[in-house]
Amino acid sequence: MADARRNQGERTEPQAGEGKMGRREMLVALSAAGAATAAGMLFGGGASAFGEALPGLTVGQDVYGPAGGECCGNVAVFDNVAEMKLADLRERTIACTVSYYAGWEASPLGALGGAFYDIVLPEKFSGTPDGFGDHLLASGRIAVLRKTGGLLATRYGAKGDDGATDSYPQLQAMALQLKKQGGGSATLDWAGGAYGIGQTITLWNNTTFGGPNWLKIIAQTTYDCAVVGVPGANHVHITELKVDCGYVPAQGGLYLRRNNASWHAENITVIRAAHDKSRKGGRAVTCEAGVNPALYGARKAVIGSIIAVDCYMGLCLAGGTNQEDSGVIVNSLVAERCETVVGLFGNSAGYPHPGVSMQHIVQNVSARNCGKSVTYGRPHGLFVSDRGSNVRIGQFSISNDPGYGSISSLMMGDWHNVVFDGGTFIGACDQLIRFARFFEADVIRDDVFATSNCEFRGIKHVGTCTDAVTASLADDAKVRDTTIELSTDAVSSPAILTPGMAAKTTVRFKLQNRTYNTRIEGLAGAIGSIAQYADYPNTSVICGLHEQH
């Protein structure tokens, strides 16, 4: 079979009755490519590597085949790429592979990786063939992959074998091809199992990347993630990204770094992302600060949805005075069995950071069985902040099963100009809000930062907690100009406010407790540390009310 097809490639003119394929035979052979793709790339006059339009057929011929049912005399057909590479194909021949590897033509999914190639002379090819999409033939000529309609991972030889093979070289070759041509799309097409990767896939400007198949990290990568943009990569679109980090230490899913501006990431799913105390990481999605805003511009990123399961952190947002990270919107986040749902990090000096340097919006957060500190033996939180600034988080709903146990805090850290726009937490905790330094270490030795100009509004708790709100320092400057509105259920501490919180002169509370049917409102100093819910059963009290006559 192979000899007959190779011989056809050696002739300028096919002999009558020899070396021709019927249209239906061709399309059946290319079941993975699809009839529509084949018609557009071959029969419909699509552009080729020859730099000109190929002779096409009429619409009627495209559908029903030319007279006699025969066509395509200048097409050489091969079972796979290895067979094609051995053929002595003349320039301007069109090669067609049924599948990429031997045996893939019998895949339960149909033939995988089948494609069309234009045969060109080396001097007419720019650069060196990567050996994954474009191939050097035994004859010295080059088979150039038809790239009409975008690139497919299986056409570059990526194997969906759940990580038994490292397909990073093939997938990175796709990204490099898009860089070479100035942009385009690369699809992680379904191949029956995840594509294993032992390195981070790097993207350039004007790239559309993703698809229905999974990526599985099989080794520690350079950037501790599956996909990243080069510094300053702009106008990148992630259509769908599914990553299994395999509990490889410090690995994560998507990493927007160093001014990756104007990104759109639609659907991100990351599972089994483990933190490492030295390398950190373990975050499903990270939006980290850049280092040169003047050169690369602002962030400007929109993330449609994130699903994080069995990860250290669902979403990490970072920024700072010297590391701009602004204009980021996350429309939805779902987390399950994660240590932290959202982490905010001010990664440079100059706290509190201005809005032009750090600014994000996160909406519609849902989580289940999250918040336990497994990696570190110290207090923790579902939402944590290490000098996070200018972030708005709206509409969260978090539920921990009774068997999950109690967590340290719903919210922990130092915050500036951060607003929580309402949400519900169902479960047990020590404190709902803990104003204390958060840091990724076993022991947090300093407490030098403060919370200022924040609003924690419309937060409802169903379950038990020891204290509603605590502060690590009684110093008035530890928490300033902040509004806290909480609805609590069962609070085991008898005092409404701890002494540390009662010392704050510019913190305004609106507290409601279901157990005593009590509502307390006023400045922290007016409420004081002596007042107890039991003192005001079935009562609504405004403390410190001053009337002028």
UniProtKB/TrEMBL annotation:
Region (Disordered) location: 1-21
Biased composition, class Basic and acidic residues, residue ranges: 1-13
InterPro entries in the record: Pectin_lyase_fold/virulence (IPR011050), TAT_signal (IPR006311)
Keyword Transmembrane: yes
Signal peptide (from-to): none
Membrane spanning stretches: 27-50
Keywords assigned: Membrane, Transmembrane, Transmembrane helix
Name by which UniProt lists this protein: Right-handed parallel beta-helix repeat-containing protein
Organism annotation: Paenibacillus ginsengarvi
